[in-house]
Each structure stands twice: as structure tokens, then as C-alpha cells.
């Protein structure tokens, strides 16, 4: 699995009896999940040039030599229980945009702008956008490295480095996705509690209760949607939900800001605490734009996968980032250094408008969580041979038990430590930095070592070293903040 495959492969094939319009017609019998294909050639050509990825060609009589072109490699696809190559670049672009404009965006005014201030926050967000696009582009270009379509991040790392890197990458990615999922459950629970508080003032709905309800709804959705490509129309709903809470937060924040007296924009805290919060905010910057599962998302896109993935990334980092910028800057402008980590808890306006915005944030979090949980679902489904109809009793009962159990544990952790900002910092530090920046640069360096100039190599090594230092520093800062908050709040705190 991890041995590099040559792009120039020669296959033996026999001439088929069928002949149409002066061209031989070959029927390609694929293995390992590939479909059937037809290759046409000229009678008078001595060397047949095949432009389809084939593994074996079955014909009769005469032996012919078929050489695969360099720009059309024999791309193999690993076995998987989920759909591959079924989505347009536009749908994949919406998957990526759903991730960055999820309900997490309601926290960036408080978790990024407050600890960094105007200069640090604005410059940091813009730089993080450019750096994230660059790093994701590097990763996207490695998707078909060595003639194999690497549909999982760990598969790509294992192909380049070996089994140990495969296991390490899988561990990092699992931590990344688990923490992101916990954050979504906390967000969904916070939105539910916010709706309750708008209409009732009895304090009966505690945050842990709301998180438990949110986790149950997430489990129901995970059972009903078998794989990432099956989201389909739900991505449209996700976009509508995102626009609802972003527009409401934006409009009400601007209205509050215009009525409010001058705000304090100084960075709060002592000199020592400012260091930790600033480093933690840098982890939030990269967390805002990156999924940590780009190969898994790219696996769903149609051929040509690299070209289409680049279109999706350009869409994500242009159109997709505009709502994030608007709501983040407007929220900080309106409330200054006192901005909450959940912006909808700050805004003033009609109760029904705020209720709709919070309900939209809750529903969007449920959909977005499914995206970030899909690599774990794909691993479990593939490992246990879950194929065929999603409604088959075996498949349905498996999703109920396994996905339900996974989300139950995730919900328990979310309710136990409901510190959303700290989750974002720790996730960015221990997994998003290594997966998106360190590994992406080093894998590209290893894969293209003979093609890069000395300046290009030094550039990639500079990125590797810089983000390695940032990852260590951000991890220490995030753990310090979690320890601090754990002293301030008890387990299952009602924040």
C-alpha cells in the first residue's frame, strides 16, 4: 500500500474480435471498484495511447503493448464504503464554506479580535487566509501522487513516510476532528440555551442539559445521512441557516454599535496573561479556515480532481471568507474588548429575531458536525464492511449503535468541559497546525524534492520550522487557559 507506483505501466492485452469504424474497441475489466471503460484507437497506429486509467484489458489472440501517458496515470482508488468522485467542485466548495462559516464564526469576535486587537486581528485574519489557501493548495496537488488517489489524509502520509506516519497522522486527525465535533455540540447547546433564556427566566435549562439535547439531535442526523456526498440538499439548508445568523448578528451588532458610547478596544489582561491569550488566538486564526480533512473532502470531487479542488479552494477563500470577515469585525467594533465568545448573547433586538438566529445556529451546527465526523464514519463503515442500501437493517442498526455511541461519548466530553474558546485554541495548536501547515509543507517537499530549487526548499523548511514552534507555543497556551478556567468553573459548568 505504501510502495510507490510507477506512472508508466505496460499491460499485455489481446485483440478483441469487435471492430468499429476502423478502430479496435477494448472493454476494460477493472478491479478494486473501478468501472468499465472503452478505449478507441486507430488501426494504423503501432503504439496505442490510452487516455483512461485502466488496470487490465481482456482481449483475444494478438498481444498488444499499451503504455499509459504521463499526464493520464493509472490512478488506483483504495477500497471504501463511501462514495468517491461523485460531487461537483461547486458542491465541494460549499462543503468547505460551510465549515468556515459555521456557528463558530459567532465566536471569532471574542476569541480572535479581543486578544489581538484591531491591528493584530485584521492583519492576522488576512494573513491566515493567504497562508491557509497556500497550504491547502499544496495538499490538494498531492492527491494523486504516485498513481494512487489518496482519499484519506493518513493514506497520503503513509504513502510518503511509511506505517508510523500513517498511525501518527490518523491520531492527530482523530484528535482534531473529535475536538471540532465537541465544539459543534457545545455551540449547538449554547444556541439552544440562548433560545430558552429568551422566553423563560427560570434558569431550569442548564447548559449541560442543552448540550445533551444537541448531542442527541446530532446522533439522529448522523444515523439518517450515510456519507458525506449524501448531504446534497442539506448543504443548501446549511447555507441558508448560516446567512440567517450571520445577517442577524451583523445587523444587530452594527445597530448596537451606532447607539453605544465609545468602546474600549485595549487588549485585556496582565502582561503575562496577554502572552498566553495572544498565542492562543493565533491557533484560533488557523482553526477558522482549515478542516484538517482536505483529502477526505477532495475524495468526493469528480475528475480532474486537482483542478476541480483548486476551484473549490478559490471559492472558499474568496466568496466564502467574506461573511466571516463581516461578522467578526462588526461584532468587535460594536462591543470592543467586552465582546462575548458567543456573539448572539451580546446583541440587542426583537426576541423573535434573536430566537430565529439561534435556532439557525443550532441547526447549522448539526449539519456541520456531520462533515467533520465523516472521516471517522468512513473508517468505521469500511472496516466493518458496511455497504449497500443505507436503509438495510444491518447498516441502519450499525449506524445507530456505532455512530450513536461515538456521539454520546463526544457529548459527554462537551458537557464536562464546555469551554468553547479553549477548545478552538487547543484544536488549532495540537492538530490544525501540524496537519495543515507542517505536514503539508514537508510532504510537498519530499514528493517534489528533485523538482524544487534551493530557494523553494528553504521556503518550505522555513514554514515547517515556524509552524512547528507556533504549534508548541499554542499548545502550552491553550493548556494554560484550560487549567485556569477549570479552576474558575466546575465540571458540567452552566456558562
Automatic annotation (TrEMBL):
Localization of this protein: Cell membrane; Endomembrane system
GO cellular component, one term: endomembrane system
Protein name as annotated: Amino acid transporter transmembrane domain-containing protein
GO molecular function: symporter activity
Function noted in UniProt: Carrier protein involved in proton-driven auxin influx. Mediates the formation of auxin gradient from developing leaves (site of auxin biosynthesis) to tips by contributing to the loading of auxin in vascular tissues and facilitating acropetal (base to tip) auxin transport within inner tissues of the root apex, and basipetal (tip to base) auxin transport within outer tissues of the root apex. May be involved in lateral roots and nodules formation.
Main location: membrane
Pfam families in the cross-refs: Aa_trans
Segments forming domain Amino acid transporter transmembrane: 87-479
InterPro entries hit by this protein: AA_transpt_TM
Membrane topology of this protein: Multi-pass membrane protein
Key words, A-Z: Amino-acid transport, Auxin signaling pathway, Cell membrane, Membrane, Symport, Transmembrane, Transmembrane helix, Transport
Record family assignment: Belongs to the amino acid/polyamine transporter 2 family. Amino acid/auxin permease (AAAP) (TC 2.A.18.1) subfamily.
Ranges that cross the membrane: 116-135, 174-195, 207-228, 234-254, 312-335, 355-380, 400-420, 426-447, 459-483
GO biological process, one term: amino acid transport
